[in-house]
Design brief:
The protein is of the alpha/beta class. The protein has one domain. It is 22% helix and 26% strand. An eight-stranded mixed β-sheet has the order 1-5-6-4-7-8-3-2. β5 and β6 form a beta hairpin.
C-alpha cells in the first residue's frame, strides 16, 4: 500500500535538515543532520524528502531504526514519486540512512525531536561542518554541552 501526502507540508514550516558541505572526506561518520518535530515518520518523512529534493538530493530509499520510530508504510508517495522505506532493529538509534541517486548513501544524525532549540540548532550546525569528524553521539553531546559557570564561587574560610 502507498501513502500519499499532500504538498505544502505543515503549512510552510521549514524542515530542519542540514547536509555536510562539499569537499568533505568520504570517511566521515555522518553526512548531515535532521531535526524532526516528532517520531511519526508518516508526517516527517515526506517533508524531509521534499526538503532534500529542494537541495538537489533525490531520495530513493529511507532506512531507520525500528526501536525509536513509529512504523511507516514500505512505500510512500512524495511529489509524484515513490520512496521505499525499511526498518531495522540493528541500526544506530541516532541515525537514519538514505539511498540517493547513483546509489550513494547518506547517513543523517537525528537530533531528538524533544531537544531544546539551542541544542537542536547547534547539532544541525556541527553535523554540517565539513571538518567535523565526530560520531553522532559526540555531535549530540557537544551540541548539548552547557557552558561552565561564569562566576567562580568563593571558597569558605
Amino acid at each position: 500500500m502507498t501513502v500519499q501526502r499532500a504538498a505544502g507540508f505543515r503549512n510552510g514550516i521549514d524542515v530542519r535538515v542540514r547536509l555536510r558541505r562539499e569537499g568533505t572526506r568520504a570517511d566521515v561518520p555522518v553526512d548531515g543532520a535532521w531535526w524532526p518535530r516528532s517520531r511519526d515518520l508518516a508526517a516527517e518523512l515526506p517533508e524531509l524528502v521534499a526538503a532534500l529534493a529542494g537541495l538537489g538530493v533525490r531520495v530513493e530509499r529511507f532506512t531507520y531504526p525500528s526501536t525509536v520510530w513509529q512504523p511507516v508504510e514500505r512505500r510512500i508517495a512524495v511529489a509524484g514519486r515513490i520512496v521505499r522505506t525499511g526498518a531495522f532493529t540493528s541500526m544506530d538509534p541516532q541515525l537514519v540512512s538514505l539511498t540517493v541517486e547513483d546509489d550513494r548513501r547518506l547517513d543523517l544524525l537525528v537530533v531528538p525531536p524533544e531537544a531544546d532549540a539551542l541544542t537542536g540548532v547547534r547539532a544541525l550546525r556541527l553535523a554540517g561542518l565539513k571538518e567535523n569528524s565526530g560520531t553522532a553521539q559526540r555531535v549530540l553531546a557537544t551540541a548539548g554541552a552547557r557552558p561552565g559557570p561564569e562566576v567562580v564561587p568563593l571558597r569558605a574560610g
